[in-house]
Amino acid sequence: MKILEQKLSRIDLNLLVSLSVLLKERHVGRSAEILFITQPAMSRTLQRLRDLFDDQLFYRTSVGISPTAKALELERILPETLESLNNILSSEEFDPLTCEQGFSISIPSMLSHNIILPLFNLLHTEAPNIELTESTAKSNPFDLLEAGTLDFAIHVAKDIPARFNAMSLGIAKPAIFARKGHPLTSQKEVSLIDCMKYDFVALNVENNQSAKFTGPVEIMLAKKGVSKEPLYKTSQLQMLLEIMQNSDCLFIGPSLLIQNPDLIDRFKTVYEFNLPKKDLIEFFLLEHKRSENSKAHQWFKGKLLNQIEKLT
Predict the structure, then answer these.
(1) Which parts of the sequence belong to the HTH lysR-type domain (predicted)?
(2) Structural domains in the chain plus CATH codes
(3) CA–CA separation, 190 and 176 (whole Å)
């Protein structure tokens, strides 16, 4: 332990913060701006990091810097290390009024309007200095959670690695929606085959290009013996709804979507899937285990869960 302490005493821990920013930004100039230092100073910091780790760490490219294998290894473990240091230095009682932390979450667009808007309003009142960043749902959020790019993710995966905490948010019953006045809304009974006669629109999931991804809707339709390639895909729910409002396109989503007061007067459920429990879509709230002892993260998580519970 004495040798370890002597070795660590020669290290400037600020270098780890700089390395974290460089790994996130992949650009020396932007990293300098974030850390409020000049670009030459950032370049000197990078050289100190190279000396510390005895590795080039980054190579310059036409668009920024590209990490070496050593840097990628550090990227995997650095967020947990910095989070542990932050917990040590912030052991006092958590006060949301003075908290200046930022939180990032990926969430399906169809849930975002009902969750993020009231959450933002609450945070603006109770924790006015907290920064909230939202991104669209990811087909593979695990790498981003591990790297610290995401703090939380709402996801549908069932095979969740042990290094992540996963809380079930409930099971969503899927349904098909149409605008009010759509030809199907005047039928007394609507079958899935009736729906398949119309075009569909869909919400896009940001895919990890290194992995094949089949969405839960595609899996569900395949089990019903049908398939339908969407006419239009977008990550913007509002754009999707506008297209539905001005066409006969249909949309598949969770039945709770229609609870949105902005939608209840414009759209109607025309078909509900009758599926066994094992085939229903279950949503999970994911976080890396490194944040389970962070008072700020757990406070934020509690507020997020309160908003989600209001939907069920």
Answers:
(1) 11-68
(2) 2-78 (1.10.10.10), 102-171+281-309 (3.40.190.10), 174-279 (3.40.190.10)
(3) 10
Amino acid at 141: P
* Dihedral angle sign, alpha carbons of residues 272, 274, 277, 278: negative
Distance CA 107, CA 267 (A): 22
| CA Rg value for the chain | 23
Phi first, then psi, for residue 195 (nearest 5°) are: -65, -35
Residue 63: burial class (beta carbons within 10 Å; 0-12, 13-18, 19+): exposed
- 281-288 and 232-234: which strand pairing? unpaired
pLDDT tens digits, 115-141:
888 899 999 999 999 999 998 888 888
Helix (H) or strand (E) holding 114: helix 109-126
Check if the beta carbon of residue 232 is closer than 8 Å to that of residue 238: no
Closest CA to 260 of 237, 235, 280, 284: 237
CA 238 to CA 197: how far, in whole Å? 24
Which residue matches tokens 């907290």?
Answer: 130
Alpha helices (H) along 148-294: 192-195, 216-223, 237-245
Mean pLDDT over 210-219 rounds to: 58
Question: Cα–Cα distance between 295 and 203 in angstroms, integer?
Answer: 34
Q: Are 291 and 151 a contacting pair, CB within 8 Å?
A: yes
Q: What is the pLDDT of residue 190?
A: 93
pTM higher than 0.70, yes or no? Answer: no
Interstrand relation of 200-203 and 250-254 (parallel, antiparallel or unpaired): parallel
Provide the sign of the torsion angle of the four alpha carbons 301, 303, 305, 311, taken in this order.
negative
